[in-house]
Amino acid sequence: MVRVSFITFTRNSGKQLKLLLEHVGDVVDEIIVIDGYSVDDTVEVALSFGAKVFRRKPWGYADPDRMFALRKASYDWILYLDTDERLSRRLKSELRDLIQKAEFGGFSALSTLRVDYDRSCGEVILGSFYNRQIRIYKRDRVLYKGLVHELPIVHGKILDLPESYYIIHYPEFNWRKGVFYA
């Protein structure tokens, strides 16, 4: 059976982290949390789920620490989500089978659709921000250089999953973050 390490990056996000780990905890074998010196209960929440927590300089974005996180993972396959993201029901229920098929097919990564959840109507909007993300991959077949919002460099074949498998983003506008990125 394929074993999966889960990676996420946090900073003062205890509430979101709890919801995320409740969501993925039953489909992964290991939880890695890279924390930017949170002052809330983020670390305690992570530890309560049995996570390995590594505290790093808070850059304001996760990209400089992605390779560090991969080196801390114990298993070959990685699932990476932000604290405001969730797997669709179908992707969650079939995650291990999909990874197993990718493994047998010689694939290095799986590409999924990432969609936004529209709080005003309570629905997932497939066309709102149509983009593919590589969030499931073999640890030793991916490279990050530490650039802001960079996509992983994948060495090998990428399996594009059908649109029925997707990651849901639950956006919440943060004015401070908006000004930081402006």
From TrEMBL:
Q: What GO molecular function terms would the record report?
A: transferase activity
Q: Kindly indicate whether the keyword Disulfide bond belongs to this entry.
A: no
Report domain Glycosyltransferase 2-like positions. 5-130
Q: Does the keyword ATP-binding apply?
A: no
Q: Which InterPro entries match?
A: Glyco_trans_2-like, Nucleotide-diphossugar_trans
The record's section on Gene3D superfamilies has:
Spore Coat Polysaccharide Biosynthesis Protein SpsA, Chain A
The protein here is known as: Glycosyl transferase family 2
**Alphabetized SUPFAM superfamilies for the sequence:** Nucleotide-diphospho-sugar transferases
Q: Which UniProt keywords apply?
A: Transferase
